[in-house]
Amino acid sequence: MSVVQQSLSSFISSSNSTFLSQNKLKFRVQNVSVPGKISRVTKCVSAPSAEKTGHATKVLRNENLAKLQAGYLFPEIARRRNAHKLKYPDAEVISLGIGDTTEPIPDVITSAMAKRAEALSTLEGYSGYGAEQGEQKLRAAIANTYYAGLGIEESDIFVSDGAKSDISRLQVLFGSKVTMAVQDPSYPAYVDSSVIMGQTGQFQKDVEKYGKIEYMKCVPENDFFPDLSGVARTDIIFFCSPNNPTGSTASREQLTKLVQFAKKNGSIIVYDSAYAMYIADDSPLSIFEIPGAREVAIEVSSFSKYAGFTGVRLGWTVIPKELLFSDGFPVAKDFNRIVCTAFNGASNIAQAGGLACLSPEGLQAMQETVGFYKENTKIIVETFQSLGFKVYGGKNAPYVWVHFPGRSSWDVFAEILEKTHVVTTPGSGFGPAGEGFVRVSSFGHRSNVLEACRRFKELYK
């Protein structure tokens, strides 16, 4: 026992029971394996109080949070999955619901992160706070790899801890007085972050929509691209291509119409290109391939679905210098202030991984990973097509959008979970136009995807 532990033990034994009951603390010694270090550490943890005081502060709850409906979609799915596991403890539950990657990060990338982490234990290799906007080498690599020839410079790029985080930072940038439009269906974070910021009205249960949001209907009948002639003018337009959840991809002609629409209305497009590396045809990989986009668009993207960085957390946002507010002030300068105020920069270890991603070897490794998931997608598409379902997506995205006409999405989700022990995602969770659809993710081990498809065939044969 170390001197510190002896002193603490003596302190505990000499302390009276009144002290312990008043402070509600428990001291305990745990075995922890730490190479080259002492193997026993003492932890001080709070013991939960058995008494409920009933005390409430005088601080009002954020009324915008009270507008949110139920739980965020994916935690709600996780809750139902966990309840199913309790009901069927021996079942092999397969998750093809949440878009979380499953395959290991390529070694060329993890070795770069390991090297950076090891260097932090040396005087020569240690680094503390970095630039909030990201390391210069990584910003330059992103610009040269994904935006070469598009007029985007490294200074236009802000490295972050993921596209989802940047969506919320952008909402802070825009504030509560802007109006917004969103694809319907779309990734729930766009709408929920808008609600939290106070940009919306109350949820209208009869139409399953929030007031003051322009829902741009994207369904098979309009090739999953909104009829812009019927879309009201808004300040902000959230647009994702390839789309989550439908898997559809906007063509060059369609994106040209979107940019022209935004320019005509004086709007800003927030373009989510998190799945661009899955594109197999000649659809644009970036909104900045469209003439005039630098004057009306912001692009967010991520390494999550390319390199398996869903847990590592690394993404970026592009805000061109040409993008201006109505008073002529550069949007990028205000976003820079948001970043410097609310963020200390992405992990230096993660950024080392990002730089490795963009090396020739890293790019090849990411293409192979993307190719693996696309093979999974093909298997899922062929399975549902063989069962007579209408299937969308899957070509340029890791998601398959399956139509169950006339049925509730949550009912289909429950049926599949109950009878096959496979987790999917109900389409209505992405917006009212998603009703009657279920999203099936291709993120899974090959054996699990094959087994899930076998179960689908048993259920719907």
From TrEMBL:
GO terms for molecular function: pyridoxal phosphate binding; transaminase activity. It holds the Pfam family Aminotran_1_2. Its cofactor is pyridoxal 5'-phosphate. Keywords: Aminotransferase, Pyridoxal phosphate, Transferase. One of its GO terms (biological process) is systemic acquired resistance, salicylic acid mediated signaling pathway. Residues 92-455 form the Aminotransferase class I/classII large domain. Belongs to the class-I pyridoxal-phosphate-dependent aminotransferase family. LL-diaminopimelate aminotransferase subfamily. This is Transaminase.
